[in-house]
Amino acid sequence: MAYEVTATRRRPQAFDALAGQEFVAETLKNTIESKKIAHAYLFSGPRGCGKTSTARILAKALNCGNGPSATPCGKCSHCIEISKGISPDVIEIDGASNTSVNDVRQIKEEVLFPPQSSRYKIYIIDEVHMLSTSAFNALLKTIEEPPEYAVFIFATTELQKVPATIKSRCQQFNFRLVPIDTVEKLLADAAAEIGIKADEEALYWVARESTGSVRDAYTLFDQVAAFSGDHITFEKIRDKLGLVGVDSLNVIFEDCASGRSREALLKLDEFLQNGISIEQFIANSTDYLRSILLIKNGITKESLLGQSHERFSMTVLNSWNPIQIERAISIFLQLYKDIRFSLSPRYELELAVSRLSWLSEYVSPVEVKVAIDQARNILLGSQAAMQQSSRPVQGAQNGANLAFLMNPTAWQQNPTPRTQAVPPQPLKPSKPLPVLDALKNLPEYRNATSVTENAASAPNPSPENPDQPAPNPIPPASQNSAQPTNQFPPASQNFAQSTNSVPPASQNFAQPTNSVPPASQNSAQPTNPVPPASQNFAQSTNPVQGEWGSAAAAVEIGRGEDFEKIPEDRIQKFVIDALSVRDEILAALFMNTRAWKKSPGKVTFEVGSEFDRVSFASSRNKILDAFGKIFSAPVDFEAVLRKVEVVDLSENAPPAVKLLCETFRGSVVGVTDSAGEQVPAASEPAQNAESARGEEADSGFEEEFAPEDIMPDDD
Ligand SMILES: [Zn+2]
């Protein structure tokens, strides 16, 4: 028997054999079984994913001697002729080479003659997007009013190039790329069929290289099988395809993660000497870093990673935080674009590898912002804690903040306040926080470090059990903001609002929705472990948690409660609860408030920052509307900026904190100067304040929070 390429030999012959296109197959089967046969079909999708095969199966299903049937027999003369491509009534036309209007006119004339021996006369037009505009126009009339027996099946890889007039007259089917594990399974079957042994990892790479196209995968498989003898192994294909395996990448990225740029660059040279192309190295490295990012986010699914997560280097995983890995990926993605226009692609690659070697030192703007906010909190919060001994928990929280900032491990692993899934591996301490050189020059720096050492002995839960995920020694900044009694929230609140417009899921879960009793708080802990101090804090400040968490209360929310009957001390929780199911953003806004006072038809509360006050002002109509729905009568509100204790930065702050605060003074909002007046935000365009306020009343929440709209409200 003549040699047949795998793609042809294994071309699917029935709907059920269409790999990865189950939805299309199912729908087509249903149309045939219910005898609702359209006159025009349009199959779109990437190359090699089964469009032409499906068209032929559909043709067989329609013309089978035992049909029309969703399961064509494959044995009758019609089926055999169609499989071989010689049926006189199934006409396959390559749109790419028959693009002119004359070609289409010929089709129009031919279609007037009924089928010779079959039920339907079927035109399969591949690459239909290649037809010229006039050809499309000529076709239009025919597919609009075709003879009873005519069926058109169009296939295209570029759906956007098919005119809407054609699309709207066809039944459309979108074919998808076939998942890698499906392709891998098909390849394993193909190997078994011809009696070749094939390692799983080798087939995985063949599948992966074919990027979801079954035909490409089979073609590559044929090549690999040709030089592999009777056993396809990863080693054999790695050299042929020039792949860089995960083990090699582990080695080079471990060097990068440990800052050994010399070793990394020498290793890169070794790879390139061995004939691995620069493009291939970049592509495989990007895949690798992506897998590292997924693992870092707690995803260990093998079909996503390509291999077991245990094969990836723990050194790399432990050295870089998610932000740094994101940065590494973007370096490589950009690199792939850059090498096309580069003087020397190799230099570009070496530069990227060298950059990765100091990636551990990289601190993102987000992290800098968090650090500054934390520094402010320490500075302001520790002052307040001393003056307000009646709130011991506050001090504990600040202690935790301080410990967080000063503890490099916590810092590295929790760079942002967003909720992060913890990777399954125990993480070792990462590199310490980079120290600003400017700090070292301060004469008082030594004093500052002694302060930080004292601070570090404050409540700082270090991993007691290495099997446990890394603990989160401080609640995320946004959680702070959820505490109504938080003494000095402005910084962390600003942060929570400006970067996360929606409260994190865990926060919703723990606080505002309250449809479950306090037990839910405990259940939230395993995923986001909070130190005992802050946990106590959360509970002690929410004595009514249990009542509001009851199912009965949840049912009542938002049903026009009588405003006058709600006790004053619970009104904030009531509003947050009601809003959290309707408008998370507003609910988050209300979480930052405190000191609620009720007067007939009106509530007054304090907000921690100018930003918050402006937010309330600009959402005024929306809030009044919400209040109207929540309570039985219209309720007005007033948001008052709370007075912040004036702290003299020059006297009591550790020099490190002082320097940070002074350096970034321009971006801090809501701090009063020694005269008790507002320190204006650096970017305040005062002349626009009036006009902006006038317009923003009814616009959408997101729009209102465009940076230029954030300015003090002076009523
Ligand atoms: Zn048949």
Short synopsis of the structure:
The chain is α/β, with parallel strands linked by helices.
Major beta sheet summary: 5 strands, parallel
Counting DSSP H or I runs of 4 or more residues, the number of helices is: 38
User: Which small-molecule ligands are present, each listed once?
Assistant: zinc ion
Poorly predicted ranges (pLDDT <50, ≥5 residues)?
Answer: 385-435, 444-557, 666-715
Kindly name the structural category.
alpha/beta
The geometry reads as: flat
State the distance separating the first and last CA atoms.
91 Å
Helical percentage: 40-55%
- Across the major sheet, the strand order is 2-3-4-1-5
Annotation, overall tally of beta strands: 10
Tally of distinct domains: 4
**Beta-strand percentage?**
5-15%
Mean pLDDT reading: 71
Q: Supply Rg.
A: 33 Å
Catalytic activity: DNA(n) + a 2'-deoxyribonucleoside 5'-triphosphate = DNA(n+1) + diphosphate
Domain AAA+ ATPase: 37-178
Biased composition (Acidic residues): 697-715
Family: Belongs to the DnaX/STICHEL family.
Write structural notes for this entry.
By secondary structure, the chain is α/β, with parallel strands linked by helices. The protein has 4 domains: 169 residues, P-loop containing nucleotide triphosphate hydrolases (Rossmann fold), CATH 3.40.50.300; 62 residues, Helicase, Ruva Protein, domain 3; 116 residues, Up-down Bundle (Zinc Finger, Delta Prime, domain 3); 275 residues, no CATH class. The protein is 51% helix and 7% strand. It contains 38 helices and 10 strands. The strands form 3 sheets. It has a 5-stranded parallel β-sheet, covered by helices on one side. A 3-stranded mixed β-sheet has the order 8-9-10. Strands 6-7 form a two-stranded parallel sheet. Helix 8 crosses helix 10 and helix 20 runs antiparallel to helix 28. The radius of gyration is 33 Å and the shape is flat. It starts with 5 loop residues before the first helix and ends in an 11-residue tail after the last helix. The relative contact order is 0.06. Bound molecules: zinc ion. The site of zinc ion has 10 residues, from helix 4. GO terms for molecular function: ATP binding; DNA binding; DNA-directed DNA polymerase activity; metal ion binding. It catalyses: DNA(n) + a 2'-deoxyribonucleoside 5'-triphosphate = DNA(n+1) + diphosphate. Its EC number is 2.7.7.7.
